[in-house]
Every structure is written in C-alpha cells, then in structure tokens.
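Re: export button greyed out
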Amino acid sequence: MICKGGILVSYKKSTLITLVGIALFGIIYAYSINSMANGLGTTNIGPKYFPNILVTSLLILCVISFIQNLKSEDQKIDINNVGMMVITVLFTVIYFLAWYFTGWFYVMTALFLWALLILFTEIRTLKSIIICLAISVGFTLFTYVIFGQIMMVRF
Amino acid sequence: MEMFQFDLLSLFTWSNLFAILLGTFAGMLIGALPGLGGPVALSLLLPVTYTMSPLASILLLLAAYQSAEYGGSISSIILGIPGGPAAVATTLDGHTFAKKHSPNKALSYSLLASTIGGIFGALLLIFLTVPIADFSIRMSDPEYFLLGIMGLIAVSVISSKDISKSMIAVVLGLMAGTIGMDSLTGSQRFTFGRAELVDGLGLTMLMVSIFAFAEVFSMISTELKKKNKTSQNGLDTTKGTGRLSMQEIKAVAKPISIGSIIGSIIGVLPGLGAGAASWFAYSAAKKTSKDPESFGNGNPEGISAPEASNNASVGGALIPLLALGIPGSASIAIVSGAFIIHGIQPGPNIFNTNGDLVYGIFYGFLLTTIVMYIVGRVFTNAYAKILKVPSYILITGVLFLSIIGIYSASLLFFDLWIGLVIGLVFFFLKALNFSVASFSLEFILSPIIEISLRRSLILSDGSFGIFLERPISVAIIVIIVLMVAYSIFSLRKSKKATT
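Workaround output, generated via the alternate export path:
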C-alpha cells in the first residue's frame, strides 16, 4: 500500500518473505559447502564441519521463526521516502561507476555530493543550490586534506 | 605488579594526545546527533586508525566511545530526543529538568556523572583485567568455545525480545565469519574464486556498512523531514550558568555511585551493553531515592544515574576483550577490529606479547575520561548548536564518510559494492527487528568459536565429553544453563502478563 511519501508494508508478510530469503541463502551456502575442498590432512572435523552446523541451525531457526510469525498478529510498518532511497542508491551506483571508469575521484565526489544535497534539501532555490555546491566543494576539500594528504590514501 | 612500572610519560606523545582529542571531538559530535551513537561513531573512525600506531588507534576509538556515551545525553537534554539507545533513560528527567530549570545545569549533571562513571569503569578495568587474564591462562580450547557460546546466548537470548530472529542474526554473523581461508587447513571457503575474499569479509567494510550505511537509509526514511521541527524545539543553552554547587553535587553522589557500580558490572557481562546498563541504573536509583515520585519530572538523580552507568559500562566492557579476547558488545567488537588491523590478538597472552600496549590502554583510558570532561565543559554549548545542522547535510556527510571509510580500509571497489548491498540488506533487517548488534558480535567471535570447537574435537577424537572434563568448563556450562533457564522463565512471565 502506498501512503504519503512512503509505503505501508505488512510486518508479518515482510518477515516471512525475509525468512524465505534467508533460508534460500542458507541453501546456497549449503551447496557451496559440498563443492568445497577438504584441505590437506583433515579429519572429519575439517573446514566443512562448522559451516555444516551453522547452515543446519539456520534452516531450523528459519522454520521456527516462520511458524511463530505465521501465528503472530500483523502490524503495518511505514517506510517513508522510498523514492529518495532508490534515487540515493542509483546516484551511489553511478558515482562508483564514474569514479571507477574515469579515475577522477575528486571531480566525481564533488558532483555526487552536490547531487545528493540537492536531492535531500526541501527548498530548491538558486540560493540553496549554490549553498549545496559550496558544501560539496567543502566536503571534497576536507577529503583531499585529511584522506588524500594526511592519510595518503590514493583514490 | 608490572602495570605500576609503566612509563606514564610514554602516553603523552603528540600522536596519542591527538588521537584522544580527535576521538573525543568526533565521538561527542556523532553521539550528540540524534539516532547516531557509539557504534556509528566507532565504525566511521575505524578506517582512520590504519595509519596510526596501535596505542593511538585504540585510544582514538575508546575516546570516541566514551564521548559518544556522554554526547548522547546532549540531544536527550536539549531536544528530548536520545542520541543513542544508552541515552533514552536520560531523556525522561534530562529534558524535563532542562525545560523547568536550566539546560546548562542538566548538561552539567550529565557531564559530571559521565566523568565519574568513566573513571570508575577505568579503575575497574585497571584492577580487574590482570587477575581475570591470569585466571584465563589456565583455560584452553574447550573453555574458550564455551565462553564463545555463553556470549552468543547472552546476546541472542537475554538482550532480545524476538529470540528466534536474534538467533538467526547470530548464525548469519557466524556464517559471515567463515568466509575466506580456513586457518586450520588452508582451504578456501565461500570465496567464489574472488581473491578479495581470501582474507574474509573486510572488518571495516562490514562494520561501516551495517552501522553507518544502513543508518543512512534509516535516516532518509525517518529523519529527512523531521529535523527542522526538532531543531526548533531545542532549548537555548546560551543563557544561565551550568555550575553545580557542592550541595547539588552531594545530592547526586548516591545515584552516581549506584550508576557507576551497575554500569561497570553490566559492561563486563556480554551482550547487555550501555543501553541496558542505563535502564538498570535508572530504576535502581529510583528505588533507592528519597523522592521516587519526582522521577520522570526532572529529578537530577534521574539524569545522573543512567549517565554514570553508560560511561562506566565502557570500561567494564573492555575487561572481557583484554582478559579473554572476547568482545562483549557491538562497540567493543569494533574496537577489537583496531587490534586485529594491527595484527594484535586481544586475550590473556596480550600481556606477554604487548604488555606496554595494554598498560598504555589502561592509563590512556583514564586520560580519555579526563579529556572528555574538559572538552565537554568547554564545548557542550557548541555541540548543542550543531544539533541544528539540517538533516540533508548530515545524511550526505554520513553516507560520504561511510564510502570513504570503506575504500580507505582496503582500496578495493569490490568492498564498496559489497558494502552498499550489505547496508541495504541490513536496513531492511533492522526494520524487521533482526539484531544488528548480534550479527556484528558473532562475526568477530566466529573464528574463536570455530577454531576452539574444532581443536577441542580433534584432541578428543570427536568426543563431546571434552567439554565436561574440567571444572572451569562445567562452571561455564552451569552458567549457560542458568542463562537459558532465566530467559525461558522471563518469556513465560511476560506471556502470562500479556494474556
């Protein structure tokens, strides 16, 4: 259900779907255990031993939690600003790709921060856009001095 | 007593003092911002420690941890919104006292209590760690495995309302810890042929993504439009003095003592942390107060007890890490990351291998508390003003620092992608009440639990009888059984109360 600025989701349904997702992850994990090499000179208590215990426990716990949640009363959880979250992730992905392919870290950082600040600010006037630009340049300079110069990180 | 032979002057190097000051300023700032708190402060600062000496890096994190606990009370008192879970109890009396009397005085009560609590925790750390470490030298793999299980049960059973979800988070944390090369056989596990995963999931990447990245999405969801309203509600800290008279100090001496004792004990116990410590201290102070009815209506005792307690818990929580090598809380798990980054394994042997470092931590921790008091005294008003920073700047800043933190730790784009995915996953898991703290703690504990279990079973030819052979193991098993029994009893009691 879509509410003002966000979505109302069923806590129960979301939990059940998440538990199924976790169980699927467990199955992939179990499959990976089988394809794993045993290592040199190992006994029964080799590298697969502990992961096997973990995946068995995970699947049992998922079943228990699934049954518990099926019986429980439902409630709604409100996740606001979903659109903003999606755009933030999108901007971040574009930023990573642009940084990786161009290598222009500081330029891309200033643009990324500027875009985020404009996205998050409520009032978008020319003045606020200029303020956002100033803040993004400030953040970038801070990164250059602290991380680039003092900590010698090569971006 | 080797610790009394430690050269105190070696603590006062420029790098150590800079680390303590940086940690104090950053911790107080991040702790003061509503919704953030100790783990976020520590995870954002962890990447900075790569270029520092081991002592400076650990003091940086401890200073940040201490100051974040005090910082949390600033927004509790000024805005009525707790800076973190450990400051929730402070909000009840802190904000009311600030509105009725003076915000500066409420902050002074908080700072005084935090400092005394911090010093108490530090003294406990100094005097208790060595005897526990001496005792733990007698322990071997079966006991270490059982201690790991005890921590696991404490985290998942005692500190959570939804036990099955918390247990799932525990198992997922342990699973995350199995990625990479198996240290006993050299086999590669769950690396999917990626060289980046041979050493396992990056500790910094994981901590920053689950605490800071996930928090960014929570903030976008909940804080983006709320902020302006809260900053208007903020109280003015520029008027009136915060100086406490001797009479006022005497009036809160008892709750501060209660808070300090409770906080340091709770801190030692795995899984409970500063949040639980402050609530226990608040209710104990209320029970022993001459005026319990005024609790919740601006009683300074209700500010002092939880604040002393959450700071005392920091020193307490360090004891199991240094003496046993087992972190008792999510924040301490991040601190243990700084040890691991510098190739140091915390635990009883650390006194032989890195004695100077440990004694430096003891006295340095005391120093962080004193610096916290001075910085708090001088800059609290400035921090109160920073609370009015618009959320769009705050969210952008935290997101960007998270990205830079992850990249600086490994210089791998791979970690950035994984971190983004983990951050998103944990945003949803947190919304559905899966315990993030349990996950992070078990990720750190996973190698200790696995290796001690496998070595024990290899020694005994696969017989689980090895866990019952020695009195220490049996004593730990009894404690585990009592913990499980207590949680079953509490569950039944709460079910009866609801029906």
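Chain B touches chain A through 60 residues (CB under 8 Å). The button fix ships in the next patch.
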